[in-house]
From TrEMBL:
The record marks Y254, Y297 as: Lowers pKa of active site Cys. GO terms for cellular component: cytoplasm. It holds the Pfam family GST_N_2. CDD domains: GST_C_Omega_like (cd03190). The lineage of its organism: Bacteria, Pseudomonadati, Pseudomonadota, Gammaproteobacteria, Pseudomonadales. PROSITE patterns: GST_CTER. This is Glutathione-dependent reductase. GO terms for molecular function: glutathione transferase activity. The active site is at C63, Y196. It comes from Marinobacter fuscus. Residues 173-297 form the GST C-terminal domain. Glutathione binds at W96, R129, V130, T131, V132, E147, S148.
Length: 328
């Protein structure tokens, strides 16, 4: 675990001293957008038109942020247009790494050993954390974006003109945007990032405030899902996929490893049925790898789990009936 400083790798855990024990997530640095015609998007530079075969996605199966992009790639029918490489779940002194000898974990572009080599290929003097997901432009040999929230928006619409892309599947419909944005805001701070704030806190009060906000939000979500099928209404939106990737990891990892242990998701009837329903959407189960998820957190985060022992449980069954069909 570490970061690049002016292009040089430094092995260093998160510095929570300067924030009184509070974990603060660093903002992503590459914020360009792929657009249908290559004009600039909401941030960054233009020149990244949606073309088949031009872009490559670097992900970890363990990472909830990268997981969002894999779900969108799958459900939008982008697999034949955007290639992918998956880092190894162990993220140790060199950060995310590839295993060049293993088909499942090799870098298909450059045969790199470490993900930080991909970052310095894009910017030789890069300073910052080396995170997944990364959307890579094979033509300009640079990183388009390393912000999952932006990448899923690109995947949702920029490639819609290409053959086989499911243009009618819109996870950010115009008429629902205000509601989706509002839900995302609360879910991001208190749930998606909330579990990390609890797990990486190095002061009791910072842990407890993250814990409290997290479970208040889970209660709020549980109530909301009592009479609406999905978070923003009757159709699945990006708000659901953004919550899904945290919920699917919760009982296996966040409950114990990050000390988010007031309740498990299985203790919430609506949230757990909703989680199973999303898991059962065709294609989604293939994006979920619980073994890699568990291995990453328990093996890599040695300040949280010094022994690196991976727990055997819990028993999880996301394929059981979801019981949400009566909510239209
Ligand atoms: N804002 C980023 C956050 C991505 C992120 O933090 N990914 C984690 C893995 S779950 C990572 O790569 N961490 C490595 C590090 O912080 O050094 C996004 O949503 O794309």
């Amino acid at each position: 675990m570490g970061l690049l400083i002016e292009g040089q790798w430094h092995d260093q855990w998160y510095d929570t001293d300067k924030t009184g024990g509070k974990f603060e997530r660093e903002a992503a640095r590459f914020r360009n957008w792929v657009t249908a015609d290559g004009v600039a998007g909401p941030s960054g530079d233009g020149g990244f038109p949606a073309e088949s075969g031009r872009y490559h996605l670097y992900v970890s199966m363990a990472c909830p942020w990268a997981h969002r992009t894999l779900i969108f790639r799958k459900l939008k029918g982008l697999e034949s247009h955007i290639s992918v490489s998956v880092v190894h779940p162990d993220m140790l002194e060199n950060g995310w790494e590839f295993r060049p000898g293993q088909e499942a974990h090799r870098d298909h572009r450059y045969g790199a050993q470490y993900l930080h080599q991909i970052y310095t290929r894009a910017a030789g003097d890069y300073t910052g954390r080396v995170t997944v997901p990364v959307l890579w432009d094979k033509e300009r040999q640079t990183i388009v974006s390393n912000e999952s929230a932006d990448i899923i928006r690109m995947f949702n619409s920029a490639f819609d003109g290409l053959p086989g892309v499911v243009a009618e599947q819109d996870f950010y419909p115009q008429t629902m945007r205000a509601g989706v944005d509002e839900i995302n805001e609360r879910v991001y701070h208190t749930v998606n990032n909330g579990v990390y704030k609890a797990g990486f806190a190095t002061a009791q009060d910072k842990y407890e405030s993250a814990f409290k906000a997290l479970f208040e939000s889970l209660d709020w979500l549980e109530q909301r899902l009592a009479d609406t099928r999905y978070l923003a209404g009757g159709v699945i939106t990006e708000a659901d996929w953004r919550l899904f990737t945290t919920l699917i990891r919760f009982d296996a990892v966040y409950y114990s490893h990050f000390k988010c242990n007031l309740k498990q998701i299985r203790d919430y009837p609506n949230l757990s049925g909703y989680l199973r329903e999303l898991y059962q959407v065709p294609g989604v189960a293939e994006t979920v790898d619980i073994e890699q998820i568990k291995r990453h957190y328990y093996v890599s985060q040695r300040t949280v789990n010094p022994t690196g022992i991976v727990p055997v449980g819990p028993q999880l069954d996301f394929s059981a009936p979801h019981g949400r069909g009566h909510l239209s």
